[in-house]
UniProtKB/TrEMBL annotation:
Originating organism: Aquimixticola soesokkakensis
InterPro entries documented for this protein: SsuA/THI5
Gene3D superfamilies (alphabetical): Periplasmic binding protein-like II (3.40.190.10)
Alphabetically ordered keywords of this record: Signal
Cell compartment(s), UniProt: Periplasm
The organism's place on the tree of life at top rank: Bacteria
Domain SsuA/THI5-like: 58-263
Predominant place of localization: periplasm
Gene Ontology CC, one term: periplasmic space
Protein name, as recorded: NMT1/THI5 like protein
Family: Belongs to the bacterial solute-binding protein SsuA/TauA family.
Length: 356
């Protein structure tokens, strides 16, 4: 694929959207109009998150979906199980869910969904600690807050600590629930360290006496796993392929524009998240510099590595591996819509390599 990076300024984006919308409308007259029904995208957050995943919300508020000729309605639910239930009930055409949940479905014999894109491959986690804990090794004998035993943050954090030479038995685990609750416990010095997202860390009202023990870059390097993907039912891939591709193109264009102009994210998020000040937003977007999925986040090697890690940790049965072709992703991934978008837009340089 050829390299074709076209970031737009504000006026350029507006002109491009108008031209693109007219061009797509003409295509509809020639080749048959797109579905009159809105394309419903199910997201697992109730407000735009302080994460690169926010491109799904911003593609709607900034007109990127409209510029691609697709009308998108966001359906908001809490957590992956609700998103899957809504998708299965026909209440949406695409959903952002955890990869392990998709693989669990596949392991149980349900092959109705396919991963097609990942707007935010991995949550930008970090480990924060009290100032007295100067290094990961110093966590030995200390308390470490987790969501619950077996939760994603627990499994990932134990892998990160193991890479730093700290065994799971060396720390005392305290199950506290959601990241915000764990952050409050850390600030109150009820625990010595915990994992949280960059967003939670940046918006903590009081970080006195605390510091980042393991940076987001070091965390991901120790646990380079795919966390979330956008899935589409096979029936939708067959009946509404143009809209699936249009949604993907919009997410790619916006991710590339933000990567090229980070302040675009700050400006777009400010009216949607009035609870977060502009300085905090700027601090966040600086942390996200390598996190925008400019090529769709569907690296085959990363997907396979994540599947194998889930099997190794006991989260998944070996049944998810097709015995005849263990490296064949076609049972739960469809690269075709993303590859069509990449043919249209070109492959962008950045920290999102394309590999099939």
């Amino acid at each position: 694929m050829s390299l074709n990076i076209q970031p737009f300024g504000a006026r350029g984006r507006g002109l491009w959207r108008a031209v693109a919308a007219l061009w797509i409308a003409c295509l509809g007259l020639v080749g048959g109009a797109a579905s009159a029904e809105p394309f419903r995208l199910i997201v697992t957050h109730l407000e735009p998150p302080l994460l690169p995943n926010s491109v799904m919300d911003l593609a709607q508020s900034l007109g990127y979906f409209e510029a691609e000729g697709v009308e998108v309605d966001l359906v908001r639910v809490q957590q992956t199980p609700s998103a899957i239930a809504a998708l299965k009930a026909g209440e949406g055409e695409m959903a952002n869910i955890s990869l392990d949940a998709l693989l669990q479905l596949h392991a149980m014999g349900d092959d109705s969904l396919r991963a097609v894109v990942s707007p935010n491959t991995s949550l930008p986690f970090l480990i924060a600690a009290r100032a007295a804990v100067a290094s990961p090794e110093a966590l030995a004998g200390k308390t470490f807050g987790i969501g619950r035993v077996g939760s994603l943050d627990h499994a990932l954090s134990m892998r990160v600590l193991a890479e730093a030479g700290v065994g799971a038995q060396a720390v005392s685990l305290v199950a506290l629930g959601q990241p915000a609750t764990r952050a409050q416990a850390l600030a109150a010095q009820r625990i010595d360290a915990t994992t949280m997202s960059v967003g939670v860390w940046s918006t903590m009202p009081d970080r006195d006496g605390l510091h980042v023990l393991v940076s987001p870059e070091a965390y991901f390097a120790a646990a380079p796993l795919v966390n979330k993907v956008n899935v589409v039912p096979r029936a939708v891939l067959e009946t509404r392929p143009r809209e699936v591709q249009a949604v993907i193109r919009a997410l790619l264009r916006l991710s590339r524009d933000i990567a090229a102009e980070p302040d675009l994210w700050v400006r777009a998020m400010s009216p949607l998240r009035a609870d977060v000040g502009p300085e905090a937003l700027r601090e966040l977007v600086a942390q996200f510099s390598g996190s925008w999925m400019v090529n769709g986040g569907m690296n085959a090697a990363d997907l396979l590595r994540t599947r194998d890690w889930l099997i190794e940790t006991g989260e998944l049965s070996q049944a998810v591996v097709v015995a005849a072709a263990p490296d064949d992703l076609s049972a739960w991934v469809d690269f075709a819509p993303l590859d069509a978008a990449l043919r249209d837009l070109g492959v962008a340089a950045g920290a999102d390599p394309v590999a099939r």
